[in-house]
Write a structure and sequence with these properties.
The protein is an alpha+beta fold. The chain folds into 3 domains: 109 residues, Beta-Lactamase (2-Layer Sandwich); 63 residues; 158 residues, Heat Shock Protein 90. Helices cover 38% and strands 23% of the residues. It has 11 helices and 14 strands. It has a 5-stranded antiparallel beta sheet. Strands 7-9-12-14-13 form a 5-stranded mixed beta sheet. Helix 7 packs antiparallel against helix 8, helix 9 packs across helix 10 and helix 10 packs antiparallel against helix 11. It is elongated and about 90 Å long.
């Protein structure tokens, strides 16, 4: 198997899941995208045979057989439903090619049809989240101050009434407090200041968020984690990233069943994804965080708009949590996506790697009339 650095760079940069089967149908090589797609590490995959993963009678093995019948033959199928153990079916484009210099071996390329659509949607969500900024400034100025006056007046009135006559005053104060909390959420969209980026260990922030969840809203849930210990730091604001992870964990805990609920947190390194950063440059987003739950899934009617402001499936939800998450990710130059089917939901976050800021170039000056 080639160990050429150029080959390795190309192999790991492929956005599609790429796998090589040997003559015995064992996985001899997989790239990072394949690990993410199959939910198994390369170390676990190389110990398994393809029929055990895809199924002995699956269409995948049929195509592998067709490709092996001729040297250099390439076969494919578009819009194929691919079923994997313990995972919902996915619609993919599959290409299989026999390798002429490796007799009996076959290359598989798996491309989920929804990748481009999700990335395009992510850019739309950025604009949607920012569209709330003007509204937030107006709400803070026009509503927050009068609301404080209403709450204060209700408190004074409550002090002058008898013990049995304060129920309505309490209701006024409680509702005023509820609206004030909603305004605090909306106000966060009006913060246009650039995020104070610094090198952040993603696992440190995830550990703190998980500990907070386990001691509060996630007490009924079992947590599982699969961390890549070799991940480099990301460029981020620890407090804002903590807010992102807490929001996603809270949503997952609320969606997970009361009995048998489970949240899985995975991290990995996936080169090859590049997006436009807030600075205008295109940056790589190789750091991946997956937060999954085994809840009922996102309703079909909300999947396309789940990151839009004021979109929610909760009876008492504001619909601002995921929109704020989308804004924070955009401010960090990152991307967030959601995949969901009945029985599972996964939020995928892609973040850049920290790099030291380049020192500002010193202006060169010349003195008029200077002599050598």
């Amino acid at each position: 198997m080639s160990t050429d650095p150029a080959f390795e760079a190309v192999w790991n940069a492929l956005p599609q899941a790429a796998l090589i089967l040997d003559e015995n149908d064992r996985f001899s090589r997989v790239n990072g995208a394949a690990e993410s797609f199959l939910g198994l590490s390369a170390r676990a995959l190389v110990k398994r045979r393809a029929p055990d993963v895809f199924g002995q009678s699956s269409r995948v093995m049929d195509l592998v057989g067709q490709a092996r019948r001729g040297a250099g033959v390439s076969v494919g199928e578009h819009g194929m439903e691919l079923s994997l153990p313990d995972r919902p079916p996915r619609i993919v484009d599959l290409h299989v090619c026999s390798l002429t210099d490796m007799p009996g071996c076959a290359l598989l390329l798996i491309h989920p049809q929804s990748i481009a659509e999700r990335m395009d949607r992510s850019l739309t969500h950025r604009a949607a989240a920012r569209s709330v900024m003007g509204l937030s400034a107006m709400l803070a100025h026009e509503i927050k101050n009068p609301l404080a006056g209403i709450s204060g007046a209700a408190q004074l009135l409550e002090m002058q009434l008898g013990d049995g006559e304060t129920e309505l005053c309490e209701l006024i104060r409680e509702e005023a407090d509820r609206v004030a909390k909603l305004l605090e959420k909306v106000e966060q969209f009006g913060d246009n200041r650039p995020a104070a980026l610094e090198p952040v260990n993603i696992h440190d922030v995830l550990d703190k968020a998980k500990l907070s969840a386990k001691s509060g809203f996630g007490q009924h849930v079992r947590f599982a984690e699969e961390f890549d210990p070799s991940l480099p730091p990301t460029a981020g604001d620890p407090d804002q990233l903590m807010q992102v992870f807490l929001n996603l964990l809270k949503n997952a805990a609320e969606a997970a069943p009361k009995v048998g609920g489970m949240i899985t947190i995975r991290t990995s390194y996936r080169p090859g994804i590049r997006m436009a950063a807030p600075s205008g440059r295109r940056e790589s987003l190789p750091l991946q965080v997956l937060i999954s739950d085994n809840g009922p899934g996102v309703p079909d009617a909300l999947k396309r708009d789940i990151f839009e402001p004021f979109v929610t499936s909760k009876a008492t939800g504001s619909g601002l949590g995921l929109a704020l998450v989308s804004k924070i990710m955009a401010d960090h130059g990152g991307v967030i996506e959601c995949e969901s089917d009945p029985g599972w939901t996964t939020f995928r976050l892609l973040l850049p790697v920290w790099s030291e800021p380049k020192p500002a170039a010193k202006a060169k000056t010349r003195k008029k009339g200077a002599t050598a």
